[in-house]
Write a structure and sequence with these properties.
The protein has 188 residues and is an alpha+beta fold. It has one domain (7-185). It has seven helices and four strands. It has helices at residues 7-21, 30-48, 69-78, 110-123, 128-135, 139-142, 168-185; strands at 57-60, 63-66, 82-89, 92-99. The termini are far apart.
C-alpha cells in the first residue's frame, strides 16, 4: 500500500535515497546531492508534467539548491536520519551526507525511482563542481538571479540531453533580452 504523499516526508526520503545510493561514489557532497535532487525533480517534470516533490529550488553560486535544504537537513540530523562524514576529495575536504536510516521507498512511484537512479548514474563519476558547471549553461540558470527561485517551467525550454553553450555574441544578446524583460516586468 502506497503512503499518501506528505511532501516534507517525501523530500527527506528523496535525500536519504540519494545519499544511500551515492555512498560508494568517489565524490559526493552537498553540491552533488542538490544537483541530483534538482535534476531528478525537473526531469520528472519534463517527462510527466509533475516533479517528484513540490519543493522549489533557488539559484546559488554553485548551482541549483533545494530552497528548504538547510531546514530539512537540520531536521533529519536532529531525528538521526542523516549524518556527515569528512573525506579528502582531491585537495579539499568534502562534507559527505550519510544516510543513517533506510529510505521509505513506498512514497515513490516506479518512474520516479527510475529517474532518480538515472540522475545518480549521470552524476556518479563527476565532482560537485563538474555537475554544477553543467547547470550553468541552461536557460533556467541564465533567466534566474542568484538567490531567486528557479521557475520549474524553464526546464522545458531546453533539450535536457544536449546542453549547448552560448557563443559570446549569443550570451550578450540573451543578457540584453533578459534585462529588457525584467525592466518591463518591474524587476531589475
Amino acid at each position: 500500500m502506497r503512503i499518501q504523499d506528505n511532501n516534507r516526508y517525501k523530500v527527506k526520503q528523496f535525500i536519504l535515497y540519494v545519499a544511500s545510493k551515492m555512498e560508494q561514489a568517489k565524490r559526493f557532497g552537498s553540491v552533488k546531492l542538490n544537483k541530483v535532487l534538482y535534476r531528478a525533480d525537473h526531469e520528472a517534470y519534463r517527462q510527466f508534467g509533475q516533479k517528484i516533490t513540490t519543493y522549489s529550488y533557488q539559484k546559488n553560486k554553485l548551482g541549483p539548491t533545494l530552497y528548504a535544504y538547510p531546514h530539512v537537513v537540520r531536521e533529519m540530523e536532529e531525528d538521526g536520519q542523516l549524518g556527515w562524514e569528512s573525506r579528502l576529495a582531491g585537495r579539499q575536504t568534502e562534507r559527505r551526507p550519510i544516510a543513517k536510516t533506510q529510505p521509505d521507498l513506498r512514497v515513490f512511484l516506479a518512474h520516479e525511482l527510475a529517474i532518480i537512479d538515472q540522475e545518480i548514474e549521470r552524476a556518479w563519476s563527476s565532482s560537485g563542481r563538474g555537475v554544477s558547471n553543467e547547470e550553468h549553461e541552461t536557460a533556467a540558470w541564465f533567466a534566474t538571479k542568484t538567490g531567486e527561485r528557479i521557475l520549474t517551467e524553464l526546464t522545458l525550454v531546453e533539450d535536457p540531453g544536449v546542453i549547448i553553450p552560448l557563443s559570446d555574441e549569443e550570451q550578450k544578446l540573451a543578457d540584453a533580452a533578459l534585462q529588457r524583460f525584467f525592466a518591463r516586468a518591474g524587476g531589475a
